[in-house]
């Protein structure tokens, strides 16, 4: 999957973070089955929905309590661990968490 998702044939400038790539206007421009993070068809990942919901809930909880900031140790160019089963940075992704001040 990693090789396919980082192939310039399907994704121009694949190292650039570009969420617009997957916007409603651009979805029709994607080559079918060029982006398949959970597989496709009858044998796709059964945990896709559960994983997405868990991730969203975790992010909501963290972002409601904290502000995230780049750490001085956060790499500008993220390099991925090629031997990892899941997509992971080779050195981690250090961030600073600053407690949010909320008023009610």
From TrEMBL:
Keywords: Endoplasmic reticulum, Heme, Iron, Membrane, Metal-binding, Microsome, Monooxygenase, Oxidoreductase
Cofactor dependency: heme
Listed InterPro entries: Cyt_P450, Cyt_P450_CS, Cyt_P450_E_grp-IV, Cyt_P450_sf, Insect_CytP450_Detox
Membrane topology according to the record: Peripheral membrane protein
Localization annotation: Endoplasmic reticulum membrane; Microsome membrane
Signal peptide (UniProt feature, chain positions): none
Family matches, as PROSITE patterns: CYTOCHROME_P450 (PS00086)
GO MF annotation list: heme binding; iron ion binding; monooxygenase activity; oxidoreductase activity, acting on paired donors, with incorporation or reduction of molecular oxygen
UniProt keyword Heme present: yes
Annotated residues for binding of heme: 45
GO cellular component: endoplasmic reticulum membrane
Family per record: Belongs to the cytochrome P450 family.
Functional note: May be involved in the metabolism of insect hormones and in the breakdown of synthetic insecticides.
Name of protein: p450 domain containing protein
Native organism: Asbolus verrucosus (Desert ironclad beetle)
Classification lineage: Eukaryota, Metazoa, Ecdysozoa, Arthropoda, Hexapoda
């Amino acid at each position: 999957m990693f090789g396919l998702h980082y192939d310039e044939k399907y994704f121009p400038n694949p190292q650039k973070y570009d969420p617009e790539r997957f916007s409603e206007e651009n979805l029709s421009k994607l080559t079918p089955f060029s982006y398949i993070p959970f597989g496709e068809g009858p044998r796709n990942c059964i945990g896709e929905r559960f994983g997405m919901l868990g991730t969203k809930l975790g992010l909501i909880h963290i972002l409601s309590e904290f502000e995230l900031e780049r750490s001085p140790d956060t790499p500008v160019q993220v390099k991925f661990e090629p031997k990892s089963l899941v997509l992971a940075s080779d050195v981690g992704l250090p961030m600073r968490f600053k407690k949010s001040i909320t008023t009610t």
